[in-house]
Write a structure and sequence with these properties.
By secondary structure, this protein is of the alpha+beta class. It contains 7 helices and 8 strands, in the order αββββαβααβαββαα. The chain has a single domain, classed as L-fuculose-1-phosphate Aldolase, CATH 3.40.225.10. α1 packs parallel to α6. The chain binds zinc ion.
Length: about 200
């Protein structure tokens, strides 16, 4: 994908995530891979009013290129892209229900409905580490095989082959977290059904 298109896709994704209350105020960060590195949201800016030109360009080697200050979390985004060549978008947010589970240190159950199983698969927890730290990069790197994860005492992260897929996963993750908090210890789908859905 060329840079101009990537800037526009990233900008539209931020507006959509903000509109659904998945991105709140200046929190969270979103990135996209393009022909020549990645583009990521700038540090400390409200995600509801970003323009394509505000996105910050970073090389795959981690060098900030052009104007703007990138989100402090850009290193964990790069770590995820490095580990899987098919990943082209990473979304990190602090949605209220995901964050409620994150603060409780609870695992998200993706086996309550078929969509959870199909879109999310198994959702691991990432132990708390200080935002922007190398320790957090190390912990996020460990879940590179997962589509989505809960970041303890912090928020959530999803990744996808396209921006649409990464955003769908974040929206579904928040839906499942909300559902889980409503239904408590309800029985999930039978194990055989989970297995069947995962093979789809
Ligand atoms: Zn965060």
């Amino acid at each position: 994908m060329d840079e101009a298109t990537a800037r526009s896709v990233l900008c539209d994704a931020c507006s959509a995530l903000y509109g659904k209350d998945l991105l709140v105020s200046a929190g969270g960060n979103v990135s996209i891979r393009f022909d020549n590195g990645i583009l990521i949201t700038p540090s400390g800016r409200n995600k509801g009013s970003l323009l394509p030109d505000d996105m910050v360009k970073i090389t795959m080697e981690g060098k900030v290129s052009g104007k703007g200050k990138p989100s402090i979390e850009y290193k964990f985004h790069l770590a995820l892209y490095e580990r899987r060549s098919e990943i082209n978008a990473v979304v990190h947010c602090h949605p209220i229900y995901c964050t409620a589970l994150a603060v409780r240190g609870e695992r998200l159950r993706s086996d309550l409905t078929p969509e959870g199983v199909i879109l999310l698969g198994d959702v691991p927890n990432i132990p708390y580490r200080t935002p922007g730290s190398d320790e957090l990069v190390e912990e996020v790197s460990k879940i590179y095989r997962s589509s989505a994860a809960i970041m303890e005492s912090h928020g959530a992260v999803t990744q996808g082959r396209t921006m649409e897929e990464a955003c769908n996963r974040m929206e579904e993750l928040e839906f499942q977290a909300h559902l889980q908090l409503i239904v408590g210890n309800a029985v999930g789908l039978p194990r055989e059904e989970v297995y069947r859905l995962r093979k789809k």
